Amino acid sequence: MSDDPRRIASLLSANPFFAGFAQGTLDRIAAICRQQHLAAREVLFLKGDPSNGLYAIRRGLIRIGTTDDLGQQLTMNVLGGGDVFGEIALLDGRFRTADAVALEDTDMFFLPRRDFLHLLSSEPAIALHVIELLCGRLRDAIDRMEESAFLPAETRLARRILMLAVDYGMVVRASQEELASLAGVTRETVNRQLQRWKRAGVLVLGRKRLEIHDIDDFRRLTGIATLGPRTR
What global pTM score does this model have? Predict the structure, then answer.
């Protein structure tokens, strides 16, 4: 992939995180930005790795999660085109807080930590944008805590599936284990509920994926009228 700054600036302008910046700011970001490709199932970094920069997904899917000593995986998030990640370790300079693994072929922008921190000190608009991103992550975490405390398992699962569908399309590429982690339920609960929705005719199941026939029908069946905007 070409690292020509003019081309990168054009590509960055289509990313929701960077789209609102003035052209001069985009040009400065593009000057330090590199493009990176991951093959499906390729590891980008692991929990505990040193921070080296910020990532913005152009296209593809990245799983954010952890693995315990017994090999059990916890999926914290699934990120796709337009999403930015790695901001915590970028700012505090400490180790990565989770693993990042490509679920499919993925193209990203990479901003080296030292260069990006220098930009933050001279570009208040970028610093404010990063603060807004962190605040959004905190709000999302609070929302998930409330969901776990007050919503039944079926509703939590439906909300996670809907969020993925709204963000990345009607074909949701996630395993039942990953959906279980995202919704805070067991894999058995996910399998049982997906089979019910399949019998109701609102979705089709495949290997590590599902496809929603009609998102409005799925909303009506699950009783979820609307979802608030997700942090990107």
Answer: 0.81
